[in-house]
Here is the input.
Amino acid sequence: MATETLSRERVLEIIEECGGDKEHLLSILIEIQRECRRNYINEASAKVVAEKLDIPLVQLYDILTFYAMLETKPRGRYIIEVCNNAPCYISKSHVMAKFLRKELGINFGETTPDGMFSLQYMPCVGACNIGPVIKIGDKVYGNLNEDRIRKILKELRENAQ
Amino acid sequence: MVTSMHIDPNKMVTINIDGIPVTVPSGTTIMEAARKVGIKIPSLCHHPDLGVRAFCRVCLVEDSHSRRLKTACNNLVDEAGDITTNSPKVRKARQTVLELLLANHPQDCLHCERNGKCELQTLAAEYNIRGNIFDPVWKPVPKELSNPALVRDMTKCVRCGRCVEACQAIQTTNAIGYSGRSTDFKITTAFEKPLSESPCVYCGQCVAVCPVGALYEKDDTKRVWDAIDNKDKFVVVQTAPAVRVAIGEEFGMERGAIATGKMVAALRRLGFDKVFDTDFSADLTIMEEGYELLDRMKNGGTLPMITSCSPGWINFVEKTYPDLLPHVSSCKSPQQMFGAIAKTYYADKMGIPRDKMFVVSIMPCIAKKYECQRPEMNSSGYQDVDVVLTTRELAKMIRMAGLDFNFLPEEEFDHPLGLGSGAGAIFGTSGGVMEAAIRTVYEVVTGKEPQSLDFTACRGHEGIKEATLDLDGTPVKVAITNGLKNARVLMDKIRAGEADYQFIEVMCCPGGCVGGGGQPFRTTAAIREHRMDGLYKVDKNMNLRQSHKNPDIQTLYSEFLKEPNSHLAHELLHTHYEDRSDK
Amino acid sequence: MSKTIQLLTARCGKIRPDSVADYIANGGFSALKKAMSMAPMEIINEIIDAKLLGRGGASYPAGKKWKQLYEIEGDPKYIVCNADEGEPGTFKDKVLLEKDPLSIIEGMAIAGYVFNSHDGYIYIRGEYREIQKLFQAAIDNAVKANYLGDNIMGSYFSFRVHIVSGAGAYICGENSGLLNSIEAKTGRPRVKPPHLAEVGLYSQPTLVNNVESFASVPQIINMGGKAFQELGVEDSGGTKLICLSGNVNRRGTFEVPIGGVTLRDIIFDPEFGGGIPDGKELKCYHLGGQSGPIGFPEQLDTRYDHTSLKKQGLSIGSGAVVVLDDTVCIIDYLKKVSEFFIHESCGKCVPCREGNRQMYMILHKFATGLATEKDFERLERLSFTMATASSCGLGQSASTALDSCLKHRREEFQAHINGICPVCLNSRKYGDQYAY
Here is the structure.
């Protein structure tokens, strides 16, 4: 499903699928990003959206850089998001973060050389009752420990093949 | 007193500001009300011509109706109450806000473009800031020097948003905007591209409103000094109409004061070999453009025809409305016509080799810096206009030379390129090109002198003006607009096939060139009107008020160009445009 | 006797969330039916009598808000539900969205009826993608059953609910930021005045309420405002969903009658938190989200209602209760809070953008033993300026947690200056994620 870059036609289709109007702009952008293998919205796609929804490109760029879920630079296929807000922090999310850094060999904000994983922080996803949590795609994983993280990474690597 | 519920501007409200009662219409801002009792509330992001953002939080005051401090720029007076503008609480908050701003601002004021003219510097001085309890957090970012017109030094940016208002709300150019959030919140182009790859038209309205040294025109004064100092060069200078009614402001003269004579004297003392007037080539433009219009009307050419004097406007059409380029007059702007004539007709006449002739323009404009470097602007075989300086840059040179501007005598322009008509002078304000054109076209078409040369329907700074002129039975419908937001309205009308005009005047900047991006800082709508009044006064005081009656123009045609729109005129005085849209 | 109550959560987990049939079988849509037989002002009076204080965090009286909007002329008026739950430690709206979405829809429809609105919007966090899908199914089913859409239940009243997705911005929980976001603008808050009641969504008069507030509306209509109020205390009626997280044995969402429990109950009662795990001691607790105040053991006997908490300098806020045990260093925790605000500030106004990062830098100085007495003055001036001069609630409340700690635990700050905080030394080895 995920492709390297979306064609103009595909972007226009996504716009229609999401309702086709400005009110659904964020949904449209999220969908475009999901379909892009590298999890970002490139300039070409942004231009199609800007033109179709009649939003000046510079204002669309503001939106793309303002919302934390949206990204304008290529990222990994899987984005591992670690909640670092206070409730998870108290549940030792920083220990998990350190372990993930070690396990993936990258820092936060970076992508593994094989383009598989990106590591980043995320704000609270309302799963504080099972902290510490990470989120990969739409899935939230809670009550983490090192073993569980190893298993999750292994599964994702296998999935990708 | 600060809700906007049920604001009734007919209701008068009396409030106490620092104990002084003041009665104002409901809906007046606290800032305006305070000014009425002689209290200037400090502010950084506020600008009278721009939408309210309330970003800077400097204009804080205490309001008896609120526990929190209020910003005076956007909170409105609506019911009786007490405002305190000078209390320990207010001073503490304002000082802290300023120190926070300064902690994220480089402290290299001595080398800054805006040294002495910086609104942040002034605030810091007025607030007696003598240090900062906060640690510096500013980080240098590279200056953007990608284009010949303006520089963006975002290290200095205070994120007040004035430039974005100018670019998005006033001009609708949408070249720059906000991006990111929190400490990453900044002003940028889409995808951080250089301005040259953005919709930017170099109008410089962002520069005109920037309170600090984050945006400024590319400084070309050194190139001019070098040329003057070079004995091999014959350096001539032309001055645009709108400069003479603005340069005085730089030296404490009244707003809109006519400083033509002193400016000429200053230019001569700076060392220019000849001091000429763009009013002359404005007259030339009227000849060429007037005949082009008549030709289009007679021979079924593309109408409405749109003026082409304003280089920001040309950039805008090329980038945003390329399909409408055939509507734009092929005439070069007066500055470029001047350059072409100076380096051909005049150089040859004076026996000066064209490559030794150095043409400098003093313009109220930043886009002119870009215009003169367009590759097609070298009809003489050389770049026709070598350097463009803004009104502000000229003021810098005058200061550097130590000239006491107010002390200078009134001097006259040199001949032959220094004689302009009143019609040429009013080119500097919105409506002026149209009026100048009508003064000539009327006579050419009807063979009669107009009853009055004051076509007042053209005057004023409203966004869009329309008029129908009676050329002895032939009605000509015209429209005049200033500011790109308004121009967009007319362009969309043309696109939709709903524009039944024959001739449209467009000036890129609000108010026309009197409000150009290169004019003295702190220009406002009110100041633009003073400058406009100055130009109409210049016109009124002249005997020569029609372009075609300019004897030096007549000589130019008889000796050199032969007739308007002649082959040679086309070669030297007309140009072509390109689709530069990002499609 | 149980200290919890099942009012808003009565159906949660017991019905298929998007099933209109299940919802009706458990009392659903009876309030909408009843409301549509009442005059709008009658309904508003019930909300006023209910003493429902907004559940989003600001605790503004809902009845007053509705009455103000009712008195403003303008057509159309819009109904907006704020489901951008992003306050760390808060996950109670999520419970309602996931388990009883139709109760929110019913509440919005009642509001639609009161204000003769035809369009309601619910702004759901982009991170809650699955919930968005579920909610859409609930809307579709309600339309099919004619409880939404054109001519609801055969009447002249038509009302649609649209879902708008967020994309990761806490500040869009600020109502004007949220409206900007719906309008496809960046979610930075607007300049106020004008107020949203007058100039809201698409510049029209607009009602914005939180998920839990809307879900309370059908309850109020069904039982009557007075009865709803009596569940709580005199000046604040009904129940509150609280969210327990952090160092506490039982983490999760609990519904309590307002004023029916104390903070001690919430943290230590086996029915709620059940105490601190691993034999540790309670150090403090953060109430109402990151923008809320921090409470200490000596305040534990405070009743959990708006007025009692306020007397202690505390507040209910969003309903979050983050519990911290004695291995947490207060400075380290405040740095975490500060990091959050640095990340989430929209950046447009100076006190918030510059203030939060300066606050973090100063806290970092305390954490690393580099702070001096002068830093107390810095913190105090920052806190004052951010609270009084920031443009919106985010900046105004970013220093609330710091203020309560400075007030109650100044000695712990002092200890850092003197370099004798053992907890802090322990936490330092994890390094800093932000270096400003």
